[in-house]
C-alpha cells in the first residue's frame, strides 16, 4: 500500500514553484495504492517550510459537503503559506467523494493518509510524533470522527494517539442522529450517508462515538454564528470533556462559514495564530 521511498525522493527533485509565496510543495503524493482506487482520489500536496528537519505536520481535510472540492480548490489561499512560515509541514489531502463513494469511504481515506505520512514522515522532514489534523466543514467532521472512532486507524495498526491535536472548523454534522430526530436527515446529507439507517447515522456521528477508553487527542472546535453549528460544536466538546478528554468549543466572530476557511492565515487574521498556539501546546518534546 505504501509508495517506495525512491518515488517520494524523486518528487523532491521536482518541487513545484506553483505554491503560495514562501512555500515549496510536493504535488500529488499518492498515499494509498490499494487495488481499485483511482489515484486521483488519494493524492496529497505537501507544503514544506524552509529546511524542514523534524517539523510538525498538519493534515488538512477540505470541505465541500463530502461531494465536491479537492486539495487545492478547498483551501484558502493563505493557509499553506501561513502554516509553513510557522515551521509546520502542511499537507492538503484529497479523498474519495460521494455519491460515488458514500460513507465511510472518506473516513477510510483520512486514516490511510495519516498512516502514510506517519510512516514516511522522515522522508519529508516531518516529525511523526507531532502530527495534527485540521478540517473545515465536511473536512472538520472527517477529522473529528477519525480522531474519535479508533476503528479507522486500527486498520493500519495505529491508534488515535498518533494524532496530537485536532482543529475542526465549523461543522454541523457531529451528531447526525440528533439532526435526523424527526425521522430523516436533510437531503443535503443523503448523497454521503445513504438511506435512513440510524445505525449509519450514529456510526458517522463523532459525538456518539466518544468513549472514555479511547486515547482521544485534544480538540479545538471553532464555529461561527450560524444555525446548528454552535450547538453541535458545544455538544461535542461537552461529550469529550465529560469522558475525560480535552476539548474547547470557541466562537469565531466576524466570520461566516466560508470566510473562516478562505481568510485563514491572511494578514491580520487572528484565527490561524490561535490554531498554531493550540498545536504548539500539544507538541511532544
From TrEMBL:
It comes from Hyphomonas atlantica. Keywords: Hydrolase, Signal. InterPro entries: AB_hydrolase_fold (IPR029058), BD-FAE-like_dom (IPR049492), GDXG_lipolytic_enzyme (IPR050300). The keyword Hydrolase applies. This is BD-FAE-like domain-containing protein. It holds the Pfam family BD-FAE. SUPFAM superfamilies: alpha/beta-Hydrolases (SSF53474). Residues 1-23 form the signal peptide. It comes from the Bacteria. Gene3D superfamilies: alpha/beta hydrolase. Residues 45-223 form the BD-FAE-like domain. One of its GO terms (molecular function) is hydrolase activity.
Amino acid at each position: 500500500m505504501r509508495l517506495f521511498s525512491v518515488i517520494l525522493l524523486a518528487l523532491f527533485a521536482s518541487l513545484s514553484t506553483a505554491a503560495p509565496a514562501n512555500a515549496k510543495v510536493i504535488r500529488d503524493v499518492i498515499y494509498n495504492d490499494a487495488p481499485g482506487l483511482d489515484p486521483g482520489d488519494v493524492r496529497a500536496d505537501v507544503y514544506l517550510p524552509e529546511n524542514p528537519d523534524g517539523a510538525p505536520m498538519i493534515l488538512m481535510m477540505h470541505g465541500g459537503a463530502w461531494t465536491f472540492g479537492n486539495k487545492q480548490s478547498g483551501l484558502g489561499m493563505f493557509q499553506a503559506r501561513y502554516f509553513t512560515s510557522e515551521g509546520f509541514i502542511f499537507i492538503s489531502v484529497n479523498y474519495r467523494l460521494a455519491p460515488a463513494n458514500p460513507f465511510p469511504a472518506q473516513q477510510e481515506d483520512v486514516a490511510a493518509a495519516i498512516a502514510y505520512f506517519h510512516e514516511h514522515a522522515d522522508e519529508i522532514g516531518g516529525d511523526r510524533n507531532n502530527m495534527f489534523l485540521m478540517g473545515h466543514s465536511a473536512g472538520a467532521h472527517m477529522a473529528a470522527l477519525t480522531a474519535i472512532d479508533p476503528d479507522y486507524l486500527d486498520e493500519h495498526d495505529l491508534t488515535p494517539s498518533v494524532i496530537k491535536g485536532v482543529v475542526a472548523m465549523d461543522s454541523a454534522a457531529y451528531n447526525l442522529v440528533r439532526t435526523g430526530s424527526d425521522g430523516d436527515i436533510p437531503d443535503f446529507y443523503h448523497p454521503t450517508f445513504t438511506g435512513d439507517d440510524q445505525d449509519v447515522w450514529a456510526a458517522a456521528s463523532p459525538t456518539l462515538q466518544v468513549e472514555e477508553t479511547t486515547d482521544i487527542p485534544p480538540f479545538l472546535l471553532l464555529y461561527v454564528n450560524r444555525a446548528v453549528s454552535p450547538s453541535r460544536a458545544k455538544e461535542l466538546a461537552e461529550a469529550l470533556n465529560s469522558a475525560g478528554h480535552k476539548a474547547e468549543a470557541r466562537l469565531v466572530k466576524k466570520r461566516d462559514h466560508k470566510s473562516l476557511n478562505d481568510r485563514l492565515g491572511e494578514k491580520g487574521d487572528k484565527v490561524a495564530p490561535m490554531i498554531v498556539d493550540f498545536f504548539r501546546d500539544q507538541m511532544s518534546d
